[in-house]
Write a structure and sequence with these properties.
The complex is a heterodimer. By secondary structure, chain A is of the alpha+beta class. Chain A is 19% helix and 37% strand. Chain A has helices at residues 59-71, 84-87; strands at 5-9, 13-15, 18-25, 28-33, 45-49, 52-57. Chain B folds into 2 domains: 1-310, HypD, alpha/beta domain 2 (Rossmann fold, 3-Layer(aba) Sandwich), CATH 3.40.50.11740; 315-367, no CATH class. In chain B, strand 3 (84-89), helix 7 (102-107) and strand 4 (111-115) form a beta-alpha-beta unit. Classes of the chains: A alpha+beta, B alpha/beta.
Chain lengths: 90, 369
């Protein structure tokens, strides 16, 4: 749970006064709060921790870190959620 | 992916190690705080590349590992109630409490769910007004703003069936506790890169000054860590004790002000008990009075639960850098990631789990000596 994973912002929306986007990590996307990175827009890469983007990174940095996390087997389970399907886009 | 290839060929890494060897005239003990950094160090065998006198010890920076036994017992007590849905990060489920763990509660019919973000728990509470939804909020400063946002959201949206079992911990007070201990061996720290992405690194200035200890905020990639080690050894050899930032790609002096703002809005500093270490003054975060209605500890009357830690597990010494996981007689035999005795074996960021994963043969050979 204490990992921060880089991903690419693919959508951006405001829900209940909070800016939420879908962020793509490899083959999957997750709803991500973008309120801590107001300067980020669609197509940007961000470091995401427990569903919150905490900083902007460039694409090369993002791809490199993601590949490292993947090669260390640390991504297994990290993005797991029992509720993701239940709550998807509600 | 050209940078990854650069890491793999190790040319730059060898250059840094050569420079380290030139500069390191004396032995030094360095500690990385963050469990993610421990994992990278083990995975790439960085500790084994270093000149003989440079020793790395592993700090208390795995939230799963330092959450106190009584907090786990509280989560188990709350999750066992039929009217509660307890929502947690996945790696908390197998952390042993005094008599059970959350996974067993779930297996026995308790409603325990895993999420990757606390905001999912608020959404779930909103959609299930008949359930008392409790989010098990552990984590360092990196995680606290996310959990703060969940509470803030619940209050704003009037989601009254949501609450937080909060057990947040803070890095600088833990470093202060380690440095103040008469048994301290640590002479330089690699600061936690993602904690500092949120908080900045201004908080570390007074520690460096007061204890005359260099602190270098480091990233999570192999070269980040080697560079941070080189920066620390350079300071130590020159007799300097400053706060420096190696992870400039993500960390600024003031941190992420948006995240810090919501954190300060919802939480306040409190004393906190750490698993294996004990109580550390002002080392935790709890809900402010204005958010007391979201405090699960208060709602479910669990504040009085206390627990004594078992004597067999040496995680206390491991988390303070006094012992290595392989010094434990249970390591890899009676204590494994499948059957953990102590929390550092549970989470993939725990020092024992990282040693088990990357050092199992060395450990087995040592055990049979």
């Amino acid at each position: 749970m204490c990992l921060a994973i880089p991903g690419k912002i693919v959508t951006s929306d405001v829900q209940n006064g909070i800016r939420i986007g879908r962020v793509q990590f490899g083959g999957i996307t997750r709803a991500t709060c973008l309120d801590f990175v107001p300067e980020a827009s669609i197509g940007d890469y961000v470091i995401v921790h427990v569903g919150f983007a905490i900083s902007l990174v460039d694409r090369e940095e993002a791809e490199r870190s993601y590949a490292l996390l993947e090669s260390m087997g640390l991504l297994n389970g990290e993005l797991q959620s029992d509720l993701e399907d239940l709550l998807a886009d509600k | 992916m050209k940078y990854l290839d650069e890491y793999r060929d190790g040319k730059i890494a060898r250059g840094i190690v050569a420079e380290l060897t030139r500069r390191a005239a004396r032995p030094w003990v360095l500690m990385e705080i963050c469990g993610g950094q421990t994992h990278t160090l083990m995975r790439y065998g960085i500790d084994e590349m270093l000149p003989a006198g440079i020793e790395l010890v592993h700090g208390p920076g795995c939230p799963v590992c330092v959450t106190s036994l009584e907090t786990i017992d509280k989560a188990i007590a709350i999750a066992s109630r039929p009217d509660v849905t307890l929502i947690s990060f996945g790696d908390m489920l197998r952390v042993p409490g005094s008599h059970s763990d959350l996974f067993q509660v779930k297996a026995q019919g308790g409603d325990v769910r895993i999420v990757y973000s606390p905001t999912e728990a608020v959404k779930f509470a909103g959609a299930n007004p008949g359930r008392k939804v409790v989010f098990f909020a552990v984590g360092f400063e990196t995680t606290a703003p996310a959990n703060a946002m969940a509470v803030w959201q619940a209050k704003r949206q009037g989601v009254t069936n949501f609450s937080l079992l909060a057990s947040h911990v803070l890095v600088p007070p833990a470093m202060r506790a380690l440095l103040s201990s008469g048994r301290n061996r640590v002479q330089g720290f690699i600061g936690p890169g993602h904690v500092c992405t949120v908080m900045g690194y201004h908080e570390y200035d007074e520690l460096a000054l007061e204890f005359h200890v260099p602190i270098v905020v480091g990233g999570f990639e192999p070269l980040d860590l080697l560079e941070a080690i080189l920066m620390l050894v350079t300071q130590l050899e020159e007799g300097r004790a400053e706060v420096e930032n190696q992870y400039v790609r993500s960390v600024t002096y003031q941190g992420n002000l948006h995240a810090r703002k919501i954190l300060a809005e919802v939480f306040e500093v409190c004393d906190r008990k750490w698993r294996g270490i004990g109580a550390i003054p002002k080392s935790g975060l709890s809900l402010r009075q204005e958010y007391a209605e979201f405090d699960a500890d208060r709602l479910f009357g669990t504040a009085a639960i206390t627990a004594e830690e078992p004597a067999e597990c040496i995680s206390a010494e491991v988390l303070q850098g006094l012992k290595k996981p392989t010094d434990c007689s249970a390591f890899g035999t009676r204590c494994t990631p499948e059957n953990p005795l102590g929390a550092p074996m549970v989470s993939s960021e725990g020092a024992c789990a990282a040693y088990y994963r990357y050092r199992r043969f060395a450990a087995a050979a040592k055990a049979s000596d």
